């Protein structure tokens, strides 16, 4: 910035003091060092002023020039390189007259015309040289004493400015660093972070929320209640809203929001109270993990060959129905059927184990093909299966079995193996309404019924429980 007020000459020590008194308070508040040197140059009527700060890291000088006769940066280097100045351990050098001619060539007439000047060193707290400043006046009227005092005041003021400025810029740097770290964390963290105001506005919506749910914050705020997009059911929505409290629980809660494409997600949420009393919701998407857990859980109770439940799975179901749903069993009764393929060993022996596998798999699939309501089936092991028919009496179970038997008789069990037929024996246990029995007893009785069917010639069903015991024979050939 140039000092246009070249006419502004201050001649007396009093007027210098007045000028300094006016300028000193604004020095500390100046936004830049350039403004500081401008203020001094202008207030004291200097034609040339410069400050050169030593840049520690770059090992160079940062030169700021002001005044109505500004010199080149190169001139500043030249002045500082002058032998006389370097040689003495000076802090302040003053010229009462002829300073322009001393430093500048005749071609630079304005600069050559400069008369009095002061060149001062700026020092760090520890005494190291921080830089230099220079003020030159177009007149001779400043005495050496005045110029030295001027130098002391100016260097003190600049030093104070630099200390404040460096503390401020350090704080600013630190703050910017922290803000940038948190911004990166907020945008890129693989966790869901959001916040809603009391009037249902979305205040915070991080990158992971946008990625997972497909909505941007602006899009959400176009809706009167953005939460309704994720939880269309009002009751659920109100429960979600009520869960966002200022006192978070120690466990994360599982919620099932829907995304922009209508996909139901599984998420875990908690929230934290920020110092400004706003609440930040923190969540994780566990949809994939949950699906995998469910897949593994299903796998753990599924028989790989037949895709029925395996032994553990079907026995768990039996226990579940008899214990947890005992009121339904008491109310509606139930039937349990144990199946065992007849002479299966001879199928293996004649056609091989892998053909036997295909036959077993066919049996399992066909058993489940036309289920009665609520029916569950499982493979107990080998060529033995169990089916549970909630709320079915022995007649319904028997009819189901005989239709199944008929389908098997009419099916080609293994493609290409026309002679291969399978038959089975079945034991049926029916519990009448009001009747209860532990699972172990159910299995014992149904096994006895099956044994009865085997003993009586196979290819038939034996019913126990419900009505008096009777044998239903069905010919399949
Ligand atoms: N292919 C195949 N065979 C199996 C499997 N599990 C058990 N088996 C066979 O099933 C046959 C069962 O033989 P047994 O217990 O003697 O019964 P069965 O020959 O069916 O005779 P009954 O039950 O008395 O009518 C054995 O040969 C087993 O090896 C399996 O997963 N795959």
Automatic annotation (TrEMBL):
GO terms for molecular function: diguanylate cyclase activity; GTP binding. Its EC number is 2.7.7.65. It holds the Pfam family GGDEF. GO terms for biological process: cell adhesion involved in single-species biofilm formation; negative regulation of bacterial-type flagellum-dependent cell motility. Its cofactor is Mg(2+). Keywords: GTP-binding, Nucleotide-binding. It catalyses: 2 GTP = 3',3'-c-di-GMP + 2 diphosphate. Residues 332-466 form the GGDEF domain. Pathway: Purine metabolism; 3',5'-cyclic di-GMP biosynthesis. GO terms for cellular component: plasma membrane. The keyword Membrane does not apply. This is diguanylate cyclase. It comes from Mangrovibacter plantisponsor.
């Amino acid at each position: 910035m140039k000092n246009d007020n070249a006419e502004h000459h201050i001649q007396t020590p009093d007027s210098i003091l007045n000028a300094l008194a006016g300028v000193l308070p604004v020095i500390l508040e100046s936004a830049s060092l350039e403004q500081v040197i401008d203020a001094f140059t202008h207030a004291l009527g200097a034609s040339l002023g410069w400050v050169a700060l030593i840049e520690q890291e770059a090992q160079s000088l940062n030169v700021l020039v002001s005044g109505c006769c500004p010199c080149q940066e190169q001139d500043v280097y030249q002045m500082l390189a002058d032998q006389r100045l370097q040689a003495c351990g000076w802090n302040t050098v003053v010229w009462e007259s002829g300073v322009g001619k001393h430093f500048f060539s005749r071609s630079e007439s304005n600069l050559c015309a400069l008369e009095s000047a002061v060149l001062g060193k700026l020092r760090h707290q520890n005494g190291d040289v921080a830089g230099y400043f220079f003020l030159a006046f177009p007149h001779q009227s400043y005495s050496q004493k005045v110029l030295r005092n001027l130098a002391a005041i100016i260097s003190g003021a600049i030093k104070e400015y630099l200390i404040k400025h460096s503390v401020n810029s350090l704080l600013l740097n630190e703050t910017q660093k922290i803000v940038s770290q948190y911004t990166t964390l907020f945008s890129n963290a693989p966790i869901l972070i959001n916040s809603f105001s009391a009037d249902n506005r979305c205040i915070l919506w991080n990158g992971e929320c946008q990625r997972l749910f497909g909505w941007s914050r602006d899009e959400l705020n176009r809706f009167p209640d953005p939460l309704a997009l994720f939880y269309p059911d009002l009751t659920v929505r109100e429960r979600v809203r009520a869960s966002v409290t200022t006192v978070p629980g120690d466990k994360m809660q599982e919620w099932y929001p829907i995304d922009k494409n209508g996909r139901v997600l599984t998420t875990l949420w908690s929230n934290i109270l920020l110092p400004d009393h706003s609440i930040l919701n923190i969540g994780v998407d566990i949809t994939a993990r949950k699906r995998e857990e469910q897949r593994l859980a299903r796998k753990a109770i599924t028989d790989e060959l037949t895709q029925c439940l395996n032994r553990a799975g079907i026995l768990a179901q039996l226990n579940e129905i008899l214990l947890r749903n005992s009121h339904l069993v008491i109310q509606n009764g139930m039937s349990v059927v144990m199946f065992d393929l007849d002479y299966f060993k001879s199928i293996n022996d004649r056609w091989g184990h892998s053909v036997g596998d295909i036959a077993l798999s066919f049996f399992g699939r066909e058993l489940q093909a036309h289920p009665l309501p609520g029916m569950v089936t499982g493979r107990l092991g080998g060529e033995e299966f169990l089916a549970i028919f909630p709320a079915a009496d022995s007649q319904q179970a028997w009819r189901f079995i005989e239709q199944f038997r008929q389908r098997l008789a009419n099916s080609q069990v293994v493609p290409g193996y026309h002679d291969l037929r399978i038959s089975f024996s079945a034991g049926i246990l029916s519990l009448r309404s009001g009747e209860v029995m532990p699972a172990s007893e159910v299995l014992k009785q149904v096994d006895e019924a099956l044994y009865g069917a085997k003993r009586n010639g196979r290819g038939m069903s034996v019913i126990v429980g419900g009505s008096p015991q009777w044998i239903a024979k069905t010919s399949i050939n």
